[in-house]
Amino acid sequence: MSLRKRKPVTPGQRHAILPDFSEITKTEPEKSLVVGLRKTGGRNNQGVITVRHRGGGHKRLYRIIDFKGRVGITGIVKSIEYDPNRTARIALIQYPDGKKAYIIAPVGLKVGDKIECGENVEIKVGNRLPLKSIPEGTQIFNIELTPGKGGQLVRAAGTYATLMVKGEKYAQVKLPSGEIRLISLECMATIGQVSNPDHKYESSGKAGRTRHLGRRPSVRGVAMNPVDHPHGGGEGRSKGHLSQTPWGKPTKGYKTRKKRKPSDKLIIQRRK
Q: Which of 152, 134, 136, 133 lies closest to 144, judged by CA?
């Protein structure tokens, strides 16, 4: 995975830093593993906008990802593909019984590699094991929170967690945010780091590419009138107020997590 920088022959190319897709081996998705995806425009089931600045964007097909793995069956990597619904790359796996599945591809996984899932499989990139079978200090991703539910943590491009210490029932896992959390030893995780680690260095170069992703423009609060935003109004540019949302809630460091959640006892150290 690497990035490409265009010659600055147009304003849109001058600041563009884009992926070169050199690791992609197949351009069309597996038809049996895709479903249609309807756009929401940031609206909930009642038609109310609950997420602002969403709308438009390119049409997408949703790739059905296997976040669990198939225990005891060895699969072969048939292709590494682009997924428009996530920042990471995905890998198409072929199993001996003819079934196919998509998984989140780790860094270093190549076409022809074999992957396994189970308690006693080899500790190598792409294999999936319960935390009790993984050595301390190993980089992991796609981690379960509830045994058998499928991976929920550490699935974004370039991320990885570190298995720090194992106890009788729980393992201490350091997440990408810096949070250290207790996770059951029965929960499964995949060995390695999520693919596409250079994603954080990408720059769209122009507004149009952002619109293709379904993101609409965002207007600054200080550019609005007082009736529209707490930051609005004033003669000329004005700051002198606490940074707030349009609804008056503090921002920039204001903690919104509910107090006394059941998971509090599993969090050893908060994110930095």
A: 152
For 182-200, the pLDDT digits (tens) are: 999 999 999 999 999 999 9
- The 8-class DSSP code of residue 258 comes to P
Residue 138 to residue 126: CA distance in whole angstroms = 13
Domains and CATH numbers, the chain: 3-200 (2.40.50.140), 225-264 (4.10.950.10)
35 three-state secondary structure: strand
pLDDT, residue 1, reads 59
Q: Is 235 exposed, middle or buried (0-12, 13-18, 19+ CB in 10 A)?
A: exposed
Residues paired with 61 in a beta bridge: 36
| Residue 60, token pair as written in the block | 């997408």
Cβ-based neighbours of 32, under 8 Å, separated by 6 or more: 100
- Are 18 and 4 in contact by the 8 Å Cβ rule? The answer is yes
- Cα separation, 138 vs 173, in Å, equals 10
Q: Compute the average pLDDT of residues 134-145.
A: 96
In tens, the pLDDT along 37-52 reads 999 999 999 999 999 9
Mean per-residue pLDDT of the chain: 94
State the pLDDT confidence band at 91, using cuts at 50, 70 and 90.
very high
CB neighbourhood size of 264 (10 A): 10
CA of 174: how far to CAs of 3, 146, 162, 210, 265, in Å? 29, 17, 5, 32, 15
DSSP 9: S
